[in-house]
Amino acid sequence: MFETIDQIFVLIKHWLLGYVPGALQPISSAILSVVPVIIAFPLLFAITTVLERKGLGRMQNRYGPNRTGWFGILQPMADGIKSLTKEDIVPRTADQLVHFLAPVVMVIASFLVYAVLPIGRNMVIADLNAGVLFFFAIGSMVELSVFMAGWSSHSKYSLLGAMRAIAQMISYEMPLVLSSVVAIMAAGSLSTVTIVNMQAGYTGIWPHWYVFTPWGITGFVIFMIAATAESNRCPFDMPEGESEIIAGYFIEYSGFKFALFFLAEYLGMFATSAMAITFFLGGWAAPFSFLTWIPSYVWFFGKLLTLICAFIWVRGTLPRLRMDQLMNFAWKFMLPLSLINIVGAGIWHFMPAGFTRWTVVSLLVVLSCVLLSRGLRRNKWFHVRTYRFAS
Amino acid sequence: MSPLSGYLLLSAFLFSIGLAGALTRRNAILVLIGIELMLNAANLNFIAFWRYGPHPEALTGVMFAIFSISVAAAEAAVGLSIILAVYRHSRTTNLDQLNSMKG
Amino acid sequence: MTISFLLLAAITIIGTAAAMSLKNLVHCVLALSLGLVGLAALYMQLGAQFVGFTQILVYVGAVAILAAFVIMMTRSANPTLTNAASSFRASGPLIAVLVFAVLAWATISGTSAQPILTAAPEGSVGQIGTALMHRFVLPLEVIGLLLTAALIGAGILAMDEHRGTQHRGKQ
Questions:
Q1: pTM for this one?
Q2: In this model, does residue A135 exceed pLDDT 60?
C-alpha cells in the first residue's frame, strides 16, 4: 500500500496516458511530466515569500505581514495582483528588445534546470546521461540574462550592479561545480538519478548519504555557501543590497517583469538546494531505514523546506559581505578548499573502510580549512613592484 | 544530399560568416568573435564526421572538439585581456587607428 | 535534412550573421550567444551530448560574458561618429564568399558519391572520461598547463599598472 502512495503520481500519469492515442504519446508524456513541476514550484515560491517575510520579521522582533488573510497567508496573492496591475515603466533610453528579453531568458533558464531533478522514486522529467553537466550549463545562462538586464536599462546603478553580480556569480560558480565533483566521483556517474540511487541504501538503520562522510560534509557546506552566492542572497547580496544600490541590476524594472526576476531568483535558489539534496543529502531517500514507508516526494520536499528555512535563517542573521571580502573568500578560500576536498574524497575511496580513513581525511580537510583561513587574515602578500633609484 | 553534407555545408557557411566578420569589422573585439566563430564551425565539422564516419567508437571527433573548445576559451581570454591592455594605452579599440607601433 | 536540423541551422545562421553585422556591439554579443546555443543544440542532435553541454557552459556562460565585459570596459558600446560605415571595403565579404564557394564545391563533390548510413554512436560520458585518462592523457595534461598559463597571463595583462606609479611618487 505504501508503494502505491509513493508512486501515485507515476501511476496517475500512466493511467492518463492510456487515454491518449498512440501518435500523441511522446508529447503528452512530456507534458504530463512537466505540468506538476510547473505547478508545484511556483506554489513553493509563493509559500516561501510568506515564510521568508514572516520568518525575517520574527527574527527582527516584529510581526511579518499579517493583514491579508489569516496570519498573512494570502500575501502572495496580494503580491501577485499588485505586480500584475502595476504600470510597466520602461525608460525611454533603454534598449527595448533586450529589456524585454532579460526576464524571459532568466525565467526560461531557471525553469529548464528542473528537468534533471529527481523529485521522488522514478520521478524525474529527463534522465540525462550528463544531467549534472546540463544543470550547470543552464545555470550559467543566468549570468547572461543578468548582464542583459543591467545593460539594457542604460542606468549607471543598474550597470554597476550587473557587473558586480556577474563577477560574484562567476567567482562562486567554480566552488559550486568543484564541490559537486566529490559526489560525482563517489557515485561514478553524471546522472542525477544514479547519484540518488547510490545513496538510497542503508547499513543497519544509518543511510548511505554522502553528507555523513568528512568529504561529504565539507562538500555540502561549500556547495551551500556557493549556492547562496549564486542566488545573490544575504550575506552575498551586495549586487542587490537594498540599502545601497537599491535594487541593483533590476532597478529599472517594474510590475510584472520585476516579479518575474523575483520568481527566477527564488526558483534558482530552490534548484540549487534541490541539487544539494541530490548530491549530498540522499535525494528522496529517508534518513532511517524504518522510515521508508513515508513517500519519497514527501522526504524531498521536507528536505527542501529545511534548506529554505536555513537560507532564511542565514539571511536574518549575518551581515552583508563587502565586494572584496566576497571575492577573496571565493578565490582564496573556497576554491583551494574544494580542490583539497576532491583529493580527500580520492583518498577515502582508495583506503580500506574503517577508522583510519575517517581520521586521515578529516585531518586533511580540517587542517587545510584552518591554514587557508589563517592565510586570508594576513595582509596582501603580492605587492606591485616598486623601484628605488639612488638619490 | 546526405545528412553529412548538410552539416558540412552549414559548417562552411558559418566559417565564411566568421571570416567575413573578422575581415570586415573594425572593432578588435568583433574580430575576435569572428575567430571564435571559425573555430566553432571547425568543431561542427569534427562532430559531424564523428557521427557519420566509419569508426565512431574511437571518440576522436568528440575529443578534438572538447580540446578545441578549451583552447578557444583560453585564447579568447588572453586576446580580450590584450585588447584591454591596448585600450588602456591608446584609448581606442578601432583597428584602423591602431596602425603605429610608436608610443 | 530533417525539420529539426533545418530549424536549428536557421537559428544558428541568423544568430551568427547578426553577430557579425549589427552595429550595436552588445547586440552582437547577444546574437553570438544565440548562435552558439544553436550550435550546441546541433551537437546534441548529432549525439554528442557532452560536447553540447560543455559548449553552453564554456562559450555562452564564460566567453560571451567575457566579451560583453570587455565591450563595456572599453566603452565600445556607445557608438561614436567614427563607427560609421565610411570606409567599407568589399574585399572582406568577397573573400568570404570565395572561401564558401570552394568549401561547398569540395563538400558536394566529395560526399555526394556514397550515402553514409551508420547507427548513432555511443559517446557516453564514461567512455569520454576513460579515453581522457588512457589514450588522451597527454593532451589533457598539456591543456591543463595551457589553461594555467592563460589564466596567469590574462590576469597579469589586465592588471592595473597605475598602482606602481603611486608608490614611485612617494620616493
A1: 0.89
A2: yes
Domain ranges of chain B: 3-90
Check CB contact of C164 with chain B, cutoff 8 Å.
Answer: no
A150 phi and psi angles, rounded to 5 deg: -70, -40
Q: What is the CA radius of gyration of chain B?
A: 17
Q: Which residues pair with B94 in a beta bridge?
A: B27
Contact A208, A201 (CB under 8 A): yes
Q: Give the number of domains in chain A.
A: 1
Q: What's phi and psi for B98, nearest 5 deg?
A: -95, 55
Residue A70 lies in a domain: no
Residue A271 maps to a domain:
yes
Per CATH, the architecture of B3-90 is what? Orthogonal Bundle (1.10)
Mutate to test the interface with C, among B27, B39, B40, B93 (most CBs of C within 10 A): B40
- Say whether domain C1-76 belongs to CATH 1.10.357.10: no
B90 shares contact with chain C (CB less than 8 Å): no
User: How long a stretch of residues is chain B?
Assistant: 103
ipTM value, please give it: 0.90
Per-residue pLDDT for C134 more than 80?
yes
> Could you tell me how far CA A30 lies from the centroid of its own chain?
24
Within 1-40 of C, beta carbons closer than 8 Å to B belong to 1-2, 5, 9, 12-13, 16-17, 19-21, 25, 28-29, 32, 35-36, 39
More reliable by pLDDT, A63 or B70: B70
> How far is Cα B41 from Cα C96, in angstroms, rounded to an integer?
14
Segment A163-169 shows an average pLDDT of 88
What pLDDT score was predicted for residue A243?
56
